[in-house]
Amino acid sequence: EDTFCYMRSQLLILVWAYHCGITLGVLRTIGGVRRGTEGISGLYGVDVLLRRSKRGWAWNQFYLMEEYTGDSLQYVGKLHSDQDPGDGSVRYVLIGDGAGDIFTIDPRSGDIHAVKRLDREERASYTLRARAVSNKTGRSLEDWTNFTIKIHDINDNEPKFTKAVYTASVPEMSDVGTSVLAVTANDADDLSYGNSARVVYSILEGQPYFSVEPHTGIIRTALSNMNRENREHYQVVIQAKDMAGQMGGLSGTTTVSITLSDVNDNPPRFPQAGMYQFNVPETAAPGSTVGVVHATDADIGKNAEMDYKIISMEGQDVFNISTNKATQEGVITLIKPLDYESKKTYTIRIQVENRYLDPRFLVMVPFHDTAMVKIIVEDVNEPPAFQRLAYVMEVSENAPVGTIIGSVRAVDPDNNRSPVRYSIDRHTDMDRVFNVHPGNGSVFIQKQLDREEQAWHNISVKAEEFRDRVPVYVRVLDVNDNPPSFAAVYETFVCENAKPGQMIQTISATDPDNPIGGHRFSFRLAPEASIKANFTVRDNNNTTAMVLTLRNGYSRLQRSSYLVPVVISDNGSPILSSTNTLTVRVCSCDRDGNMKLCSTDALALTAGLSTGALVAILLCVIILLMIVVLFTALRRQRKKEPLIISKEDVRDNVVSYNDEGGGEEDTQAFDIGTLRNPEAVEETKQRRDIIPETMYPPLRRPHPVKARDNADVRDFISQRLQDNDGDPTAPPYDSLATYAYEGNGSVAESLSSLESLTSDAEQDYNYLSEWGPRFKKLADMYGGDESDKDS
């Protein structure tokens, strides 16, 4: 039946195509104004003649089947003019898209053929132009006319999906028909012609869980109650087929990966049959962890988040349970301390439930679970506990040694009630002022106390079993054991023109004691000073008093100061008093009572010059004197002038000393340049730096050449000689200043042995051995024989 339907549809297409002039188009000219009969060659050789009132050299398009596979050229159509007699005198010309390389025309008959295989998907139509030309005259018989060749589509392209793989998700437990995803496939064939591009979708894999709509490609769920906890991932294969899904159509496939997303359809459950047990020592600190419980939930993500809570009355004030967000565990912690002796076990009931609930599943099962937790308190050997956190004891500072000032008490909280031994922590009582009875905890003093030295003693008493300790604060009570005294050092003065009853000073007192009601001091003049008293004391009854004058005028020339004894008494028990002396200076004052001048000490004090200031002034004076002395001593020292005053005077200078030299090797004793002038020293003149023991004949020397007389030189030497003789700063020893003036071409030769023209062999140094031990070294060096030198 499918084959018959297919053949029938193809036959109808061909009949329609022939009626429309697909396979062949012929243009004839009948003549006159009315011309043109268009003939169509039928499938079975039957000609159909059509009458037209207008000329037939005009058309719009030809049709050509794509993907032609025949052996001969594919025939497109025929161009013919009614002016063509059929004898070859008319030539047909074709230009435009593909003319010559794709489409060819027979110029004599006007037949058009396609020389290449065409593909509609590459190009759907071609536009060309044609005309008829007379071969005899070359005149155009028909004008240029445009026409179109359209490529007829065949089903040669399969549908293609927009994606090779699709990914989608759908909530688990969704209803049947829930939309998952829409897939799309495109066909490159002509949608406007036939069913070549009409696509139909179907599912190849994924049944019975999913289905697809054939015309829209929408994938829907086909099975209810799909549970993610049973299966989470599905692979669905979708097919798209053209020709409306008929046999012979082309198809394409794609894969859709579908994941079931989680919903909260599973309640949390405790795995341990609802019973847990934990042990905790009674010494556990508040906030410490007692134990951890864990409930399981098949869901994931936020659907598996849980909250724990204690639902029983017992233990709610002792324990707390919270959720660890990272592990979803219930952490049981301690709120307050435990006591094994008071309660040994706790049984609490806990509940777990999901934090985020889905109302659709609440009617199915309860979304919470409960469990029992038994907490056992372990006994720990606890240290003794004092009955108080701190003790405050009081004792008078005059209490005798051994007085008990109080007692402490500690009890062992364990069931065995072990005895407690007490002791003082000596780090808190380094001076060992206190002690405690080891058996009953009585605290007593073992050294005398002094409140003024230390008013509070903070000590610690230990219970020896586990070294528990309690602070004990001992306050030393005051007794009146210190008399009052002046509160300050008073510097009091009285004017010489003072009147009787004039106040010159207000005094107050201080007392290191600390009576309960506060200090109250009384002041009075000492009895021994009441006779012929110059001053008196008036008590103000407010711990202060005034010192008043009793005379009319005082003279600092007769008496520069007065000593006023004042008796100060306190209100303690017993009453203590002391006599304090007030020094009053006599000063001269102006009419307003302002001090002008007192005794020497008072003047120094008034000027504001303290002892330190005086010492600083004295040091400054001493430093100035030392600077002046040093400057004077430096000025007295005079700088010695050198022998050669002018730096431009570069003449040789020889200074002779009456000291033994080191021979010719000693070049530091004198300037050897003086030996360079043979005329400076006479032949018979002896050396001035030594005293020879005997006189020796002069050395054999070449005959000196006398220097030429020169008046300038003589005047220069005379002037220098006078200057040296009249110089008061000349050294107190002999000095020889030799000045050489040789000039150019001087015939004088040097007398130095270093530059002598004669050799060592021409001179006789044997006389040196006769000069004594001082010249022994020179005699050994120069006085030996030739054999000695050679050796």
UniProtKB/TrEMBL annotation:
Outline the extent of the Cadherin domain: 81-161, 162-270, 272-386, 387-486, 486-597
Any one of the GO CC terms: catenin complex
**Cross-referenced SUPFAM superfamilies, in alphabetical order?**
Cadherin-like (SSF49313)
**Compartmental location:** Cell membrane
Annotated SMART domains: CA
GO terms in the biological process aspect are: adherens junction organization; calcium-dependent cell-cell adhesion via plasma membrane cell adhesion molecules; cell migration; cell morphogenesis; cell-cell adhesion mediated by cadherin; cell-cell junction assembly; homophilic cell adhesion via plasma membrane adhesion molecules; morphogenesis of an epithelium
**What is the first-listed, main subcellular location in coarse terms?**
membrane
Q: Where are the transmembrane segments?
A: 613-634
Q: Which UniProt keywords apply?
A: Calcium, Cell adhesion, Cell membrane, Cleavage on pair of basic residues, Glycoprotein, Membrane, Metal-binding, Repeat, Signal, Transmembrane, Transmembrane helix
Q: Which InterPro entries match?
A: Cadherin (IPR039808), Cadherin-like_dom (IPR002126), Cadherin-like_sf (IPR015919), Cadherin_CS (IPR020894), Cadherin_Y-type_LIR (IPR000233), Catenin-bd_sf (IPR027397)
The protein's GO terms of the molecular function aspect are: beta-catenin binding; cadherin binding; calcium ion binding
Pfam families documented for this protein: CADH_Y-type_LIR, Cadherin
Query: What membrane topology does the UniProt entry give?
Result: Single-pass type I membrane protein
Q: What does this protein do?
A: Cadherins are calcium-dependent cell adhesion proteins. They preferentially interact with themselves in a homophilic manner in connecting cells; cadherins may thus contribute to the sorting of heterogeneous cell types.
PANTHER family registered for this protein in UniProt: CADHERIN 6, CADHERIN-23
| Name of protein | Cadherin-10
What organism does the UniProt record list as the source?
Answer: Denticeps clupeoides
